[in-house]
Design brief:
With about 425 residues, the chain is an all-alpha fold. Helices cover about 75% and strands about 0% of the residues. The protein starts with about 30 loop residues before the first helix and ends in a 7-residue tail after the last helix.
């Protein structure tokens, strides 16, 4: 990674180069650390809500077209955040707001997400439900961009892996909470399913807006030309090969888990021939709990190992391979118990992976000066699967099944993706 040159983001020129473990941000209060973790927890709740409320509503509206309609909603929403999130990162780096360069995006993101939840809560049809989903995803995309960028702004390198584990664990627990809460309040109807957990997530996330001591720009950034706008979405793989391979690893690992989580509700319903929404949500909660427990355990174990050894790649490879093993087990037997064990192993693999993922990505960044823009490109690695996985899922689930119930093909694809992720990280040379 490069060191800092003189840059107007930092307090007063001339600014000496930062030491290897230094950060541009100022010392934070203890409340920042609490709010930082709570915001990651809130993003998890948002994912959990989307994983239950949206497919449940689509299944109620049209059971035969639920998988296809879910793919449409996910694809449109994924396309929206694919375009907007990297732009948010670029604008964040250039912000002259008195609130700072990152805090405004927390506020904007939460407000947009709340509007999206209101639209979803009262949507009478697929188009309006899709519009609400787009607003929710764009809003949380802005929040997610911010919390990822804070790893470069505020988190020292020596604790990035353990903080990656903590925040990853918070997200996973949040997903469990969102799934459990959405399932528990399913009887309240469409309005309650979206507004209650969505409102809770928004309240938790906004705490970071108040707790963060943000960076401020003292001088305007140079004007952007069209080339600069296009560079928001691009870093040369030839010039930055480590960043490129780390990006490929995150993309395929994200695509693998998204293939499972996006269709988990419908997978359980189809694979085990269950139509009762409460029973489906109950099994989904068990699966999410098993995933979460193993995820937490492995995230903390491997987070400590990664930070103490300074080695990121072995942890990522192990996590990807273990996740593939769990996916194979989950679909190899027609028994719910084996399915839950498989999902638990996937959780263990994901826990090991997230323990080093963010640390690996931030240590492959070309520079810290453009962290918002570059981490916006990192964001594409988990945003693109939101578009491509539903397209893949739409066709994979229809192999031999006109109504889209071939979830075995979907899981086989997820296994291949995890294996590609394991290979990609071995090509990173500048990080151990």
């Amino acid at each position: 990674m490069s060191t800092h040159a003189v840059d107007p983001v930092f307090p007063s020129p001339p600014v000496p180069p930062l030491a290897e473990d230094a950060i541009p941000g100022e010392r934070q209060t203890r409340w920042f650390w609490v709010a930082f973790v709570l915001t990651w927890f809130a993003t998890g709740i948002a994912q959990g809500v989307a994983g239950v409320a949206v497919p449940q509503l689509l299944k109620e509206w049209d059971p035969d077209q639920a998988t296809g309609n879910l793919s449409i909603v996910l694809t449109v929403g994924g396309a929206a955040i694919l375009v907007t999130t990297p732009i948010f990162g670029r604008l964040s780096d250039r912000s002259m707001s008195r609130l700072g360069i990152r805090r405004p995006w927390i506020l904007y993101g939460v407000l947009v997400a709340v509007v999206g939840y209101v639209v979803q809560a009262f949507a009478p049809s697929l188009p309006l439900l899709g519009l609400g989903a787009v607003l929710v995803l764009v809003g949380w995309g802005a929040v997610s961009m911010t919390v990822h960028t804070l790893f470069a702004d505020q988190i020292r390198r020596r604790i990035r892996a353990i903080m990656s584990a903590v925040t990853g664990a918070a997200t996973t627990v949040g997903i469990l909470g969102g799934v459990s809460l959405a399932g528990a309040i399913a009887d309240t109807g469409q309005v309650g399913m979206f507004l209650i957990p969505g409102g809770l997530a928004a309240v938790l996330a906004i705490t970071l807006f108040f707790a963060l001591r943000d960076l401020h720009r003292s001088e305007p950034a140079p004007p952007l030309d069209w080339r600069g706008v296009l560079e928001t979405f691009w870093l040369s793989p030839r010039r930055y090969p480590d960043f490129a391979w780390a990006w490929v690893c995150r993309f395929f690992m994200t695509a693998s888990i998204v293939s499972v989580t996006s269709y988990l509700y419908l997978t359980i319903s189809s694979r085990f021939r269950i139509d009762d929404p409460a029973e489906i949500a109950g099994i989904q909660t068990q699966a999410t709990a098993a995933f979460t427990l193993m995820n937490l355990l492995m995230a903390f174990v491997f987070g400590v190992i990664s930070d103490r050894t300074g080695r990121r790649k072995p942890t990522v490879v192990f996590g990807a391979l273990l996740s593939a093993v769990g996916l194979v087990l989950a679909v190899s037997f027609g028994d719910i118990a084996f399915f839950l064990i498989g999902i638990a192993i996937v959780g263990a693999g994901q826990g090991a992976y997230i323990a080093a993922d963010v640390a690996l990505m931030t240590e492959c960044l070309p520079s810290v000066e453009d962290a918002g823009k570059d981490l916006g490109i990192v964001a594409l690695a988990y945003l693109l699967p939101g578009i491509l996985v539903p397209v893949f899922g739409y066709f994979a689930t229809r192999i031999g099944s006109p109504t889209g119930e071939n979830f075995l093909a979907l899981y086989i694809g997820a296994v291949v993706m995890a294996l590609v992720a394991a290979f990609a990280v071995t090509r990173v040379k500048g990080v151990r």
